[in-house]
Task: inverse folding
DNA sequence: CGGAGCATGTAAGCGGTTACATGATTTC
DNA sequence: GAAATCATGTAACCGCTTACATGCTCCG
């Protein structure tokens, strides 16, 4: 039940239309809870029906865009959710699984090595993107507000997570390419 | 579509009954692809029907346990899967979401701090468990076989992942407890 | 005015979770 | 022989993914 709360958070940060939300999910919140536009529209409908958000009546709409904002009940629900407790979600990583499978059936003709390199490139790019975001949003030096410090922590999670991936994938790459050389 | 392949891998490592598989998932493979016994029994049924595994006829069963083993087609399917390509799964972490939400609605009366500490304890315990496994399964010094090196890499992923979590959660704990002190 | 793309949806299907069911074996 | 627990399932639900649908606006 995290998606509705992710949306409430995003709407508190800035009232938005469905499409805007989708874009912002792709750019920031989605790094920790991805969502497609279909999910978002559906969830916006539910949240509106429950009286947690509402469509801003204001200007009769440019095009057909509906802007939503959080109602007091929504803010309350979100505060209650923050205080709740959850088990950490079990990790799910097919690539690690592939390595274990490869231990049983062999690394297949360079395909696995290529896949590892592809993932390494993806995570390297993501790491660079996060670091750029950090430079832009949290230029060091001056004291950060409470909100900024919390948001910075979340971004740091992204950075350190990607550092973990790139570091590990480099190790994997070394071992796999060595094994591929042996088996040829 | 990773669960069937996780099961094939586990069965190649050692033919097992449904319950045994469930236990082994809890202990090792499940760290990278969790599964409940319901999923496993269902999937075993499908795999048997597709002719990728079979119930070992052997001893008419102690109790009612059915042991499964991988058939040649199953091994082939797994090898093909290893060579396949997959996008990395998007991360989903409610705790990071909670921090961002807290930036909007405030850290609530120590509840969030307690949750952070609870997660820190869980990840610390998991880290210790992985390290113990590493000591036991990969005692340094002697040269490792191909299979062992790959399996070691997977375990190292677990270790480094938990190191990431504990490191990050310690940072979070420091910030959150400071904020809670301020707001009281 | 016709085509590109913007913006908001609907529908079907699938994997995973939770709750319940059933028989067989072991333990007291 | 009753209770616990082992072992294998079935059923319902729910969130997420994928594919498709619809109307509107902007631009050449």
Result:
């Amino acid at each position: 039940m995290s998606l509705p709360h992710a949306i409430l958070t995003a709407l508190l940060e800035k009232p938005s239309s469905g499409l805007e939300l989708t874009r912002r999910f792709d750019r920031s919140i989605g790094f920790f809870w991805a969502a497609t536009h279909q999910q978002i529209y559906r969830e916006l409908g539910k949240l509106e029906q429950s009286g947690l958000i509402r469509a801003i009546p204001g200007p009769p709409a440019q095009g057909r865009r509906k802007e939503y904002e959080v109602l007091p009940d929504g803010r309350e629900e979100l505060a209650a959710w923050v205080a709740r407790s959850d088990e950490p979600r079990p990790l799910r990583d097919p690539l690690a699984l592939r390595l274990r499978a490869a231990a049983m059936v062999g690394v297949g003709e360079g395909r696995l090595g290529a896949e590892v390199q592809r993932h390494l490139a993806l995570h390297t790019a993501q790491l660079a993107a996060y670091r750029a975001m950090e430079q832009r949003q949290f230029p060091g030096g001056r004291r950060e507000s409470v909100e900024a410090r919390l948001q910075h922590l979340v971004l740091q999670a992204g950075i350190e997570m990607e550092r973990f991936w790139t570091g590990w994938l480099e190790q994997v790459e070394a071992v796999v390419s060595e094994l591929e050389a042996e088996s040829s």
User: Anything to note?
Assistant: Chain A touches chain B through 72 residues (CB under 8 Å). Residues 146-182 of chain A form the longest helix (37 residues). Residues 17-19, 37-38, 41-42, 45, 63-66 of chain A lie near DNA strand C (CB under 10 Å from a C1'). The beta strands of chain A are 53-55, 68-70.
